[in-house]
Write a structure and sequence with these properties.
361 residues, alpha/beta, 6-stranded parallel β-sheet, 16% strand
Length: 361
Amino acid sequence: MSDPVLNATAEVEWSDAKALFSFVGPGNVNLRALQKHLGIDLGSRGNVLRIGGEPTRVALAERFFIQMGQLAAEGVKLEGQDHIRALHALSHDDALHLRDIYSEVVLLTARGRPIKARGLAQKSYVHAMRTHDLTFGIGPAGTGKTYLAMALAVTALLSKTVRRIILTRPAVEAGERLGFLPGDLEEKVNPYLRPLYDALDDMVDADKTDGFLKRGQIEVAPLAFMRGRTLNDCFVILDEAQNSTSEQMRMFLTRLGYNAHCVVTGDVTQVDLPSGQKSGLAEARSLLHGIEGIAFCEFTKVDVVRHPLVQRIVQAYEERDETIELERERRKVEADARRRASEGLRDSTRGVVGRPSGADQ
């Protein structure tokens, strides 16, 4: 009989009791979430956090709370769900300090709100966009792929690193038939491009955005309009790229010119193309992986930064997809077994010649 796992205890003291009170949340809501996630006992009194449980988990929690206290002293505050992502990052890298992820400001919005990476995956994504001419951000909805790409694009435009931003996406309906859309060309494609405008409006004040659009410094257009162009001195974002066809993706990627930075975002599990048509994003991921100058950043449900329900919804659909795939594999194995059995039966009867009735009489 194996020995029971020994429990360990630790205490972490913060320099600011008010910061700790803010961290644990009203009614200790954040502390309870961390306790459930780690499977340990947590409590706080004054400016001290008390930890108890399995030794490796206690060690991880102690490291996490020490670093969170240091961030709080520097004025860095994380949202509740960010804590889980921070723990996830620390558990995979013993040398990591959370300051490396959460301290750097990507962009200060017109309202004075700092845009920062909200997890290790987002930090790696920002670094990839800064160091590669072509970056693919692939993963579920709500992981910040488009929003962070937009923040980098706006930063590049404001610093005059590029002369313009080009935002594009395929004009594909998400499983609906919207029918005829009235108005001029801009009004027809606007519904498809609205998410890009929303991200832009959140970062730059309306007057400045209007000026950029009127001067052509920001261009928003459907993917089909990229054909025949050479995109020089610009930051290009192709959003919802899973809905591009193989031909469209090839066309788009060969538009890049000098001093062009390109980010391609999408979720290969949410393809709205007609049945049987291959996603250009899925094909590009398999064809271009490993090519120098191209970065691929993969996001998972852990990296979802929307409402906590979104993460659980993504997980539910992923489990559904896994079940469907397993059932498909099971049926394939059974069909192969039946085919082999049928072929074996035919082989066993091959060569047998029927004799006429009464031949031995």
